[in-house]
Amino acid sequence: MKGRIFSGIQPSGNLHLGNYLGAIRNWVRLQGDYEAIYCVVDLHAITVPQDPQTLRERTIEVAASFVAAGLDVEKTTIFAQSHVAAHPQLAWVFNCVTPLGWLNRMTQFKDKAGKKKDQAVAGLYTYPVLMAADILLYRATHVPVGEDQKQHVELARDIAGAFNRKYEQDFFPLPEPVIQEEAARIMSLRDGSRKMSSSDPSDQSRINMIDDADTIAQKIKRAKSDSEMGLSYDPESRPEASNLLQIYAALAEEPRSKVEAEFSETSFADFKARLSDLAVAKLEPITMEMRRLMDDRGEIEKILARGAAKAEAIASDNIAKVYDIVGFLPR
Ligand code: TRP
C-alpha cells in the first residue's frame, strides 16, 4: 500500500456525471493501491441550508453511488461523517491552532459568502478546518480531490504542521492532494462555459447518476451544439463541442486528441448518436445499480454502519492521542 487516502463528497445535490468522472471513478482506480476511506460529508453539507429529510435521502444516495460506481466495501471504508463524533472534536482542536489569516485567504468562502459576509454562518468560514480534521483524523497521506479543493488540502497540510510545531510532536503526516492528470472538467449540456452542477435549475444541463438509459440518450440528443461542421476542441470559441468531446474522451478513457481527430469531420447529429451509445454503455450498469440500491435502503444502511465502525476504530484512537497531547484530563 502506498499510504492512506481520505476523500469525501457532500450529500447536497443530485450526483451527476461530473462527480463520477471527476472524482468517484478516480477513487475506484485508487482503491487497490492505497488504504482508502471515503466519506459522505453531511456535516459539511449543513454549512448551507438543507431540508432535513432531503439530507437523509441524499446521504443514502451518495453512499449508493460509491458502491454502484465500483468501490469495494471489503477493501475500502465508506461511512457518513456525522456517524463518527471525532470529526467535530478534532475540528475544535484545529480551530485553536489555525490563524484567522489562513481562513481569510480561502477563495471558496469568498465565493460562497459573496458580498454578505456578515450574514454568512460561522460554519461556512471554518469549513476548511473541519475538512482538515476529516483528513487528519485518519492521519491520511493522500487526498484525491478536484482542482477546486486543492487550496483546502494545502490548508490541511498547514494545520497539520501548525499542530505538530505547537505541541512539539510529529503526530500528523502532511497530506498531499492527488489531482487527476487530465482532470475531467465536465461542463453543462446547456452551456459549455459553465460547470455541470447539481444546483443548475435545468435538469437537462446534467446527466444524473440515477438517470435511466432513455433519459441519458435524450439529454445528449438535446445538448446544445453549434453550427460548425465537424467537432473540434476549442473551449474558448466552441465550448459545447469541446465539452461533448471531453465527455466522450473521459468515458472512452482515450486521449482527447485522439477523439478530436476521430470526429473532426462528423456532424453533431452523428457524433451525439455515438456519444449517446457510449454514455449508455458505460453508465447504465452504474445507474441501474444505483437505483437498485436506492430501493433497498437496508443494504446501504448496513454498509454505512460497518463503515462507521471501521472508521471509528481509527478515529477514536487518534482523537484520544490528540486529547492527551493537548493536555485534556483523561476521563
Ligand atoms: N470540501 C470537499 C468538496 O466540497 C468535500 C470534503 C469534505 C472533502 N471533507 C473532505 C474532500 C476531506 C476531501 C477530503 O468537494
Task: Note down, in words, how this protein is organized.
- The chain is mainly α.
- The protein folds into two domains: 4-178 and 298-326, HUPs (Rossmann fold), CATH 3.40.50; 203-292, Orthogonal Bundle (Tyrosyl-Transfer RNA Synthetase).
- It has 13 helices and five strands.
- It has helices at 17-30, 42-45, 52-68, 86-95, 100-104, 107-113, 122-137, 150-166, 213-221, 239-252, 256-262, 268-295, 297-326, and strands at 4-9, 35-40, 77-80, 142-144, 176-178.
- A three-stranded parallel β-sheet has the order 1-2-3.
- Strand 1 (4-9), helix 1 and strand 2 (35-40) form a beta-alpha-beta unit.
- Helix 4 crosses helix 7 (122-137) and helix 9 packs antiparallel against helix 12 (268-295).
- The longest helix is centred in the last third of the chain and has 30 residues, at 297-326.
- The mean pLDDT is 95.
- The protein binds tryptophan.
- Tryptophan binds at residues 6-8, 10, 41, 44, 131, 134-135, 143, 145, 149, 152.
Brief sketch in words of this structure:
The protein has 2 domains: about 5-180 and about 300-325, 3-Layer(aba) Sandwich (Rossmann fold), CATH 3.40.50; about 205-290, Tyrosyl-Transfer RNA Synthetase.
